[in-house]
Q: What sequence folds into this?
């Protein structure tokens, strides 16, 4: 993933944090290779006729499904969702292992989102105005850059001044953007206002951090490592006050991956059995475990204002690539598949 590229300038300690966060949140997206280097596909039966909008897993569980066509795509992973249920994320090209951004506009039409001239593009967040943010890498380049794409398709580059690499992870309806940058071999959280001013917002006591979400009240969420190497989520109020987030039952790792305008958080944690579990946290601090029936190792990556979430999960009996999914506020799960 692009985060690992940025970590190349962080040294051993920073690389360990990046690797651990990637394992906790994004390990589901590490696609095992199939024959001739091709990506292995999630196990399923492909329905036809009247059942074409369903997916059946090897365990016999049936889910609603959306089937997409993207040139050369072998797998997709969603990262952000807005209040219209527009979803953005990344898709991987078979054999070349290149990744590209995508936008899924309800009820299922999908288009590619690639920064012009970029070798790799990852779409991370989308607001209710249709503005998309993410990360890209230029050909033959190692440094990452952030981008913002307007609803009309115009791209702008986002780089933190003096940084060795910048990533953009979320944008609110006021045009405020959050993400991470690398400077002096350390990874920092930032918030960028609509005028382009970048402010570093590292949690107190952190050795490395990353901002992953922001709502329209200016509340920022993200992840950080403390001096002992433990990983926590954080909330930063618009006034600058920090709250540490540790999920009940978490062993060593809690991440926060998104926040909506009612203050609901989503995130992930590792339990004592090294399972990856997902949660929501209400504005008053109440945690709820999120499960997809018949699946294990669930990872949530985004939430919208109505409580719909996106993420990925594995079939309990399979070690193949996970299923990408989105879950409505009512709890209905739709699996996102490629034809």
A:
């Amino acid at each position: 993933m692009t985060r690992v590229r940025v970590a190349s300038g962080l040294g051993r300690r920073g690389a360990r944090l990046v690797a651990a966060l990637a394992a906790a949140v994004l390990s589901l997206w590490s696609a095992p290779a199939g024959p001739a280097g091709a990506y292995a596909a999630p196990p399923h039966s492909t329905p036809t006729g009247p059942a074409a909008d369903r997916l059946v897993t090897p365990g016999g569980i049936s889910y609603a499904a959306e089937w997409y066509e993207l040139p050369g795509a072998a797998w997709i992973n969603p990262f952000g969702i807005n209040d219209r249920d527009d979803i953005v994320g990344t898709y991987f090209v078979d054999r070349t292992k290149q990744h590209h951004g995508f936008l899924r506009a309800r009820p299922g039409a999908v288009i590619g989102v690639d920064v012009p001239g970029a070798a790799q593009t990852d779409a991370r967040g989308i607001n209710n105005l249709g503005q998309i943010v993410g990360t890209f890498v230029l050909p033959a380049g190692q440094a990452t850059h952030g981008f913002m794409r307007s609803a009309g398709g115009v791209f702008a580059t986002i780089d933190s001044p003096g940084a060795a690499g910048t990533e953009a992870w979320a944008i609110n309806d006021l045009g405020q953007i959050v993400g991470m940058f690398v400077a002096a071999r350390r990874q920092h959280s930032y918030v960028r206002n609509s005028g382009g001013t970048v402010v570093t917002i590292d949690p107190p006591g952190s050795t490395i951090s990353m901002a992953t979400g922001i709502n329209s009240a200016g509340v920022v969420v993200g992840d950080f490592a403390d001096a002992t190497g433990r990983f926590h989520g954080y909330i930063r109020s618009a006034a600058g006050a920090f709250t540490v987030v540790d999920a009940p039952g978490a062993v060593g790792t809690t991440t926060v991956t998104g926040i909506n305008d009612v203050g609901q958080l989503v995130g992930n944690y590792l339990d004592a059995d090294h399972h990856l579990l997902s949660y929501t946290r209400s504005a008053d601090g109440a945690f709820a475990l999120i499960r997809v029936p018949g699946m294990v190792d669930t990872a949530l990556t985004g939430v919208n204002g109505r409580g719909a979430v996106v993420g990925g999960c594995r079939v309990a009996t399979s070690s193949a690539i996970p299923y990408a999914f989105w879950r409505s506020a009512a709890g209905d799960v739709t699996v996102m598949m490629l034809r």
